[in-house]
Design goal:
Blueprint lengths: L1 H20 L3 H11 L1 H20 L6 E8 L3 E11 L2 H69 L5 H36 L12 E3 L13 H11 L1 H22 L5 E10 L6 E7 L5 H70 L5 H36 L11 E3 L1
Antiparallel strand pairs: 1-2, 2-4, 3-6, 4-5
Helix pairs in contact: 2-4, 3-4, 4-5, 4-7, 4-9, 6-7, 6-8, 7-8, 8-9
Length: about 425
């Protein structure tokens, strides 16, 4: 009874250790959102631009001073002067800055989506390469078993020596593949650590997880191009950034025309010494747009910038629409490919391998046929994980362009094996 309890305790400790090593994608993403310097920089830039809106609608600081009036008697005045721009200018300055701040907010949203794309792609790449490493090690064990069988057959005169040599050649290739895969995994882990910007982040272990293929809801994205453009206009941070830049250009163009309107200066002077004792001076001045070619050239430039931004927005919508249609097609093909792997290719390859394995033991097939079936099974299983990695890359690229999620990849269920 004590031995059983001890075994159960050890199993619980082992399971707890594996659970501690394992990190879900949602946990990794939370670390990235909190630590990534690109996200922080974009967020602070957006807050800085937003803070400037109030300043654009605020009067300049007043000026205070002292003035002396000498007319056979000296009178000293305290003065206060306030410059006031034409009211419409404050309104348009604030609107232009508000649109600029919104464009930076869209850039911040896009930066988060880009980091999400990088993290998710790296996460599934690590998951794939770790599974391929495990498959390669299992393949090495299988080929070692083939080699022992081939050596016994050769000793009994039932197989040529070339079978043993072929098995050793296959083992060498697989061992070289392990070295390459280990280097690939190390590079992926380093890249993930760099994106997370977490110095104490340890390499993640995903071999104990069985990540399901995240489904993608692409039905509404398979309509007409005009419908896709409408979706992008409403949701995509890429399009919204260009739209808010256009709004900024429109406000600045309107502002440039209002620069022909006069600005004002109000001044009040109060006697502080001298005669007469009760003396105050009020004055109001306004600017005269005499040098109109300066303002005219700025107005023309602002109008041209607005037109340029209009074309830039149109180009962004069309280019992005074509890219989204391409990615929708790739995501759809990726889903179908993974389904074919799971329902057809892998079962067929396993069946052919098991059949060749039994036939070789019974001297009914050649060693070369056995190696071919082993290579085919290895290629199919590794192909599944490579296809999964590519599918996730296309899916997260699509979500980044759209600006919203169409999958549950952030909350994909991880099932322990």
């Amino acid at each position: 009874m004590k031995q059983i309890i001890t075994i159960l305790v050890l199993l619980a400790i082992t399971a707890k250790a594996h659970a501690k090593d394992f990190m879900g994608l949602d946990e990794v993403l939370n670390i990235a959102y909190q630590n990534n310097p690109a996200i922080k920089a974009s967020k602070n830039q957006y807050h800085a631009e937003e803070s400037m809106v109030t300043s654009k609608a605020t009067l300049d600081d007043p000026m205070i001073g002292i003035a002396n009036l000498d007319r056979n008697m000296e009178t000293r005045y305290a003065t206060i002067t306030q410059k006031i721009r034409f009211p419409s200018k404050y309104f348009l300055q604030a609107k232009a800055q508000g649109s600029r701040a919104k464009s930076f907010r869209s850039k911040y949203e896009l930066e988060k989506m880009k980091i999400r794309q990088k993290v998710a792609t790296l996460y599934y790449s690590i998951y794939s390469v770790q599974n391929i490493i495990q498959l390669t090690k299992a393949n090495i064990q299988a080929v070692q078993e083939f080699s022992r069988v081939a050596e016994k057959k050769y000793a009994a005169g039932k197989a040529p020596q070339s079978d043993s040599m072929k098995s050793h050649f296959e083992l060498t290739q697989l061992e070289l593949e392990i070295i390459r895969l280990d280097q690939d995994e190390e590079a992926l882990q380093d890249m993930l650590k760099a994106v997370l910007y977490e110095q104490n982040f340890k390499p993640i272990k995903l071999i104990s997880a069985n990540l399901s293929v995240p489904p993608a809801n692409i039905s509404e994205l398979k309509g007409k191009e005009s419908e896709i453009v409408k979706i992008l206009t409403d949701k995509s941070p890429i399009v919204k950034t260009e739209y808010h830049k256009l709004r900024q250009a429109e406000h600045e163009s309107s502002l440039s025309k209002w620069e022909f309107a006069p600005d004002f200066q109000i001044q009040y002077q109060q006697r502080i010494s001298g005669q007469p004792t009760d003396s105050r001076i009020y004055s109001v001045g306004m600017t005269v747009p005499l040098w109109f070619w300066n303002k005219g050239s700025k107005s023309s430039a602002a109008s041209s910038k607005k037109v340029a931004q209009e074309y830039r927005l149109i180009n962004t919508k069309q280019t992005l629409s074509a890219k989204v249609k391409d990615l929708v097609g790739k995501v759809e093909v990726g889903l179908k490919t993974l389904d074919v792997y799971k329902t057809s290719l892998i079962p067929q390859a396993e069946g052919a391998y098991n059949s060749s394995r039994g036939a070789y033991r019974a001297n009914k097939t050649s060693f070369l046929d056995l190696l071919d079936s082993e290579r085919s099974l290895y290629k199919v299983k590794t192909g599944f994980f490579n296809s999964l990695k590519q599918y996730v890359s296309h899916l997260t690229q699509l979500e980044t362009q759209l600006g919203f999620t169409i999958s549950n990849i952030d909350k994909n269920d991880e099932v322990k094996k």
